[in-house]
Amino acid sequence: MAASDYVTRYGKWAVIAGASEGLGAAFAAQLGERGMDLLLLARREAALAELAQRLRRQTGVEVRHLALDLAHPAAAETLAPAVADIEVGMLVYNAAASQMGRFVTMEQDALERMVQVNVRGPLTFLHALLPPMHARGRGAVVLMSSLAGMQGSPGIAAYAATKAFNTILGESLWHELRAHGIDVVASCAGAIRTPGYLRTYGKEAPGILPPEAVARQTLAALGKRPRVVPGLLNRVVAQVSGRLLSRKTAINLMAGSSNMP
Ligand SMILES: NC(=O)c1ccc[n+]([C@@H]2O[C@H](COP(=O)([O-])OP(=O)(O)OC[C@H]3O[C@@H](n4cnc5c(N)ncnc54)[C@H](OP(=O)(O)O)[C@@H]3O)[C@@H](O)[C@H]2O)c1
Q1: How far is the CA of 223 from the centre of ligand 1 (A)?
Q2: Which residue's alpha carbon is nearest to atom 20 within ligand 1?
C-alpha cells in the first residue's frame, strides 16, 4: 500500500501505546510520514512532549500526547476522553513490561505488572477502540509480540507467555476482522536495538535490528498476513525452531541463550 493511502484505508488518527522512545517512537514517525495524526501514550510526559514537538516539525501532522501508566487497571478509562473527539484508525500496542529471572523467585508485583501491561492492556484498548472501527468498516491493529513467545523461554517465562498471548490474539483477530475492513498483524520480533533493550542487556545480540526496520517491516505486513517476523535471520531461526527442531530442543536452546541451566 502506498504511504499516502494509510489515512484513506484506515482513518485519520493512530494511537501508539508505548511511544516515548525506541520502537514506539519509530512507529509514530513512520505513521506521521504517512499522513496520520498521532496520539502518543507512555509514562514519561517530558519525553512524549519532546517527541510530539519533533514529529510535528518533521511531518506536519497533528500530534497529541497523554502520559499514563498502562499498568494501571483504569488505563483504558483514562484513554477514553483523549479519543472521544477523534477517529482512531489504528492502534499500535507496543508497550511491554518484562522481567528476567527464575519464576519461583519473582516478585508478585512484577508478575502482575506483566499481565497488566502486556495482556489486560491490549484487551481493554482493543475492546474500547475496535467497535468504532468495526462500525466504520476500516481500521488497523498492530500488536507487538516476540520470538520469545513462540516456544517456552526459560528465564523470561511469564513475559514469553504474555507475548504468546499477543500472537494468538492478533492472529485470531486478523481473521475475525478482515471481512470488516480491519487489518491486524502480530509482530514477532527478535532483538531490537531499543534503549530499553540496551539498558537491560548492555550488549547486542546476533541479528539485532534497528527499531526503524522493525516498524517498517511490521507496517508492510498489515493487510498481507496475520503475523510477521521482522529480519531475515529471525525468520530463519523461527522456521528452524518451529518446524525442524523438537519442542524440547527449541526450549533448551532458548534456555542456553538466557544462561538458564
Ligand atoms: N527490544 C527487543 O529486543 C524486543 C524483542 C522482541 C519483542 N519486543 C517487543 O517490542 C515492543 C517494544 O520493545 P521495547 O520495550 O524494547 O521498546 P520501546 O518501544 O523502545 O519502549 C517501550 C515503550 O513503552 C513505554 N512503556 C513501557 N511501560 C509502560 C507503561 N507501564 N505504561 C505506559 N507506557 C509504557 C515506554 O515509555 P515510558 O518509559 O515513558 O513509559 C516506551 O515508550 C515490546 O512489546 C516488546 O515486547 C522487543
Answers
A1: 24
A2: 22
DSSP annotation string for 54-99: HHHHHH---EEEEE--TTSTTHHHHHHHHHTTS-EEEEEE------
Strand-pairing partners, residue 88, are 13
Cα(172) to ligand 1 centroid in Å equals 23
Nearest atom in ligand 1 to the alpha carbon of residue 205 is 3
Q: How sure is the predictor about 49, in pLDDT bands with cuts at 50, 70 and 90?
A: very high
What angle, rounded to 10 degrees, do the helices at 45-59 and 22-33 form? 30
> From the CB of 42, is ligand 1 less than 6 Å away?
yes
- Matching CATH number, 3-257, of 3.90.180.10, 2.40.30.110, 3.40.50.450, 3.40.50.720: 3.40.50.720
The residues assigned a catalytic role are 159
Q: Which of 169, 172, 212, 173 is nearest to 189 (CA)?
A: 212
- The dihedral built from the CA positions of residue 105, 148, 211 and 91, taken in this order, carries a sign that is negative
* The model scores a pTM over 0.90: yes
Grid cell for residue 247: 519442542
Domain range list for the chain: 3-257
CA of 134 from ligand 1 middle (Å) equals 27
Task: Give tens-digit pLDDT for 139-181.
Answer: 999 999 999 999 999 999 999 999 999 999 999 999 999 999 9
CA atoms of 183 and 140, how far apart (whole Å) = 5
Best probe residue, ligand 1, of 39, 144, 165, 235 (max atoms within 8 Å of C-beta): 144
In the block, which residue shows the cell 537491560?
200
